[in-house]
Amino acid sequence: MIRVYGVEDDGSGFRSKATALYKLYSDDTMVVAKAGATPKTGGLTPVEVKGALESDVSDLVDWNTKAGLYVDLNEPVPVTSATSTTPEWEFPIVDPRAMQPETGGQTLAVDGFSYAANGVPGAILPTSRTDANARLPLPVKWLYILQDGSIAPPTGVNSGKVTFGTAAPTALNPIVGRVAFWTDDETSKVNINTALEGVPWLTPHTTSPRDVNYAKYMPARNEFTRYPGHPAQTCLSTVFQAFGPSFIISPSLTPETLAQRMEKLHRISPRYAWGGTYAGTQKATTAILENKKDRLYATLDELVYDRNRVLNAQGELDGRDLAIGKFFLTTNSRTPELTLFNKPKVNLWPVSQNTKERNEMDRLMVMLGSGGVEGGGARTEAGLFNARRTPRSLTALWVPGTRPGRTLPPGAAMRR
Predict the structure, then answer these.
(1) pTM over 0.70
(2) Judgement on whether residues 295 and 203 belong to the same structural domain of the protein
(3) Both 292 and 264 in a single domain?
(4) β-pairing, 161-164 with 154-158?
(5) 406 and 302, same structural domain?
(6) 171 three-state secondary structure
């Protein structure tokens, strides 16, 4: 669901009211909004938003008894492979068996994925990775297409027949087809082009064993899996651990085993180079890593092979794994500049006040964290940056264009 926010406070003091809710699945009411709502007034309260969502959920209590009204877009189909005549179930959207680890711990479940058997009628929990009885229905409403091209959304079922509202088929304008859809939010998935596996590193502050290792194994330049906040620290293993044992990353691994498994993930990555501290397991002997220049994955299916058409992980990564992981992985995830609460996202990067002391990476981060002026025009950092002169102070802020070291009252930065 896409939420469009205005500027009217919803009573929380930190969040705006939604002016409209756009559903990403077929329904008789595709947009939830109040008549005459504007960004400044008439928005939906949190209670009204919750009520709109709960209304659709409550409608599903008997969806499987209304065949002409609902359709399960995740209904599996039997598929045979090139090496077997025994059909296996393939799910169009999400395979429910992704929540089930293999017997013996050879693979784990996709981290964080689960569903309840009583969540929607027809749901059946898997008992194994190959359970043919597992089901996870994703019911949505049919939209009927009339002869003149108009859409007639059904409103209910009466005595086994679909009923319509004002937009209804007639003898002169009969039904010629029907459609139903479900839209995935790619921004909520793990992007195999940018994600890899995070290995912690921070500036040492104490003499604890962890901080000693931070000082001893400082990352090389371009060893992005050790850059705090970098997209490379998004972990592929949360999904890949369902594909094979060598993709399982855990704190209990020895440095040697960790390095072996991280190297395999780096081979799959199209741009991140392997080296430096080798996932924090040894002192870096190379100051700068040269980024790989492989092609970016255009589709998830390309994950099986590298640029030379050699299997990326022979024996552990195949089409069955892609069927398990397709609901959680993507190759394209452009995210908006706002959060779900209509607030700007935060870009944190240390840069010098003196622009002549900024390197190429600093300038890039400044550009990405700056915005244009209202009505268009050149980017400006003065209107967006909150720069601290004293890192441990909440009030000693440097504001571009002011005297360095100026102290602002608490909360002043938030009001800018």
Answers:
(1) yes
(2) yes
(3) yes
(4) antiparallel
(5) no
(6) coil
**Amino acid occupying residue 290:** E
By CB atoms closer than 10 A (0-12, 13-18, 19+), residue 218 is middle
197, part of any domain: yes
> How many distinct structural domains can be found in the chain?
4
Amino acid (1-letter code) at residue 92: P
Q: Give the mean pLDDT of the chain.
A: 85
Position 257: which residue type?
T
Lookup: tokens for 129: 């990775």
Q: How many residues does the chain have?
A: 416
pLDDT of residue 232: 93
Q: Do 158 and 214 sit in the same domain of this protein?
A: no
Residues linked to residue 145 through DSSP beta bridges, in sequence order:
151, 177
Residue 51 lies in domain: 2-61
Instruction: List pLDDT tens digits, range 63-74.
Output: 999 989 999 999
**Contact between 141 and 129 (Cβ < 8 Å):** no
383 vs 347: CA distance, rounded Å: 14
Higher local confidence (pLDDT), 353 or 167: 167
CA dist., res. 159 & res. 171, Å (int)? 21
Q: What is the per-residue pLDDT across 356-393, written as a single tens digit (0 to 9) for each?
A: 888 888 888 877 777 655 555 555 554 455 666 666 77
208 belongs to a structural domain: yes
Q: CB of 186 within 8 A of CB of 326?
A: no
Q: Which sign does the torsion angle of CA 302, 303, 308, 313 carry?
A: negative
Instruction: Compute the C-alpha angle 159/164/167, nearest 5°.
Output: 165
Last residue of a domain, one of 131, 153, 179: 179
Q: How far is CA 106 from CA 103, 241, 247, 252, 339, in A?
A: 7, 9, 10, 16, 38
Residue bearing tokens 């044992």: 245
Looking at the structure, tell me whether residues 292 and 171 fall in a common domain.
no
The answer to the question of residue 243 being in a domain is: yes
Do 263 and 388 share a domain, yes or no? no
